[in-house]
Sequence to fold (169 residues):
Amino acid sequence: MIKVGDKLPAGSLQEFIEVEGEGCSLGPNSFDIEKATAGKTVAIFALPGAFTPTCSAQHVPGYVAQADELKAAGVDEIWCVSVNDAFVMGAWGRDQKTAGKVRMMADGSAAFTQAVGLVFDLTAKGFGVRSQRYSMLVKDGVVKALNVEAPGKFEVSDAATLLSQAKAA
Fold:
């Protein structure tokens, strides 16, 4: 499992772009993780799935509500990562009103999730391989804080916890 002080693994995540611009076409676009985090402080939070109860009722809304405070604490971008495709993440972002606050990053094949060692295997329940619930503060591609939830919990990966860590960093 990735730990504080580690560099994020090489790879890419996808984001559904609704408005063409800045070299991005309409629809799913792929972003190189190393390039996307270079010279930036990024708050990343991951969760088991789009449109799921805790994720939709608490996790994403907390980051949307505290986006301005996170940015005031030095966070350049906030990413929500889930093992869903970019179309689903785009629809969920519209539903959660994340535009301009949280980038909804798809890890459709779970490559990033596997590379950071935070897989949550729900195959027996019919959900396949998902991400564990966690948050991390990343500066220039290096993990500065990591908060991994115990299965079924939502206690340490919330926006308030990461905000206090961003303020302390």
